[in-house]
Amino acid sequence: MSTAELHTLTGAYALHALPEDERLSFERHLGACEACAQEVRELSATAARLGLAVSATAPPAMRARVLREITTVRQEPPSQGRISRAGAAQGRAGRWTAYALAACVAAAAALGGVAVWQNQVAQDARQEARQAREHNTQLSRVLAAPDARTVSAALEGGARGTVVVSQSENRAVFAASGLARPPGGKVYQLWFDDGGTMRSAGLVEASDTDEAVLMDGPVDRASGMGITVEPAGGSARPTTQPLGLMGFPAA
């Protein structure tokens, strides 16, 4: 990662939303970049204040009243006009200060809601990053398990599927090559074969057709797996003929 790219990570770092490798790279960069260190301190302090903010709804009539009052305020004249009509300008300035204060109050009420939203976005980003790390860790553990066993089979349409099963991890990983994107409004769904009863093992997103997928749920006593095309969101039971069935390898 280039130094220019590292300079752009201050906000994500302040919100603890960086993946582990990027976090480590950025922390090494912080030791040599005072500008980024200062920005992180400021953003962290701001994030803390925003996290304490409470949403407040402005009175319904406030917006209309502020906009109405603004229309009665003349634009300030040029500097010479202000000098020659100092008294009048001072009066207008006083009225404008009151109206500006009212507008600020309205904005502050709205920004309370923005602060809560920003805090929720940061929390969601951290949660998604944590879930992604946990998912990738579990997938790696299955693939690297000493008792991992692999079996492959041809799938309908010329694709090929491979499943890796680890009894010690009680999980399975599925991968396919040459698997076309599902038709519109459809999705690929994985299934565990529990002695002839198919149990859902998760969906394969259209963007993941060439990626290894950690199957949902434990293997338990499943003897194999299958993959079908189902309506978007998946089905409780298979509704189409499977593209392929694979028996799990013996332990």
From TrEMBL:
InterPro entries: Anti-sigma-K/W_factor, Anti_sigma_zinc_sf, RskA_C, RskA_N. The keyword Transcription applies. Residues 6-43 form the Anti-sigma-K factor RskA N-terminal domain. It comes from the Bacteria. Residues 105-242 form the Anti-sigma K factor RskA C-terminal domain. Pfam families: RskA_C (PF10099), RskA_N (PF22618). It is found in: Cell membrane; Membrane. This is Regulator of SigK. It comes from Streptomyces salyersiae. Residues 228-251 are annotated as: Disordered. It is a single-pass membrane protein. Keywords: Cell membrane, Membrane, Transcription, Transcription regulation, Transmembrane, Transmembrane helix. The lineage of its organism: Bacteria, Bacillati, Actinomycetota, Actinomycetes, Kitasatosporales. The keyword Transcription regulation applies.
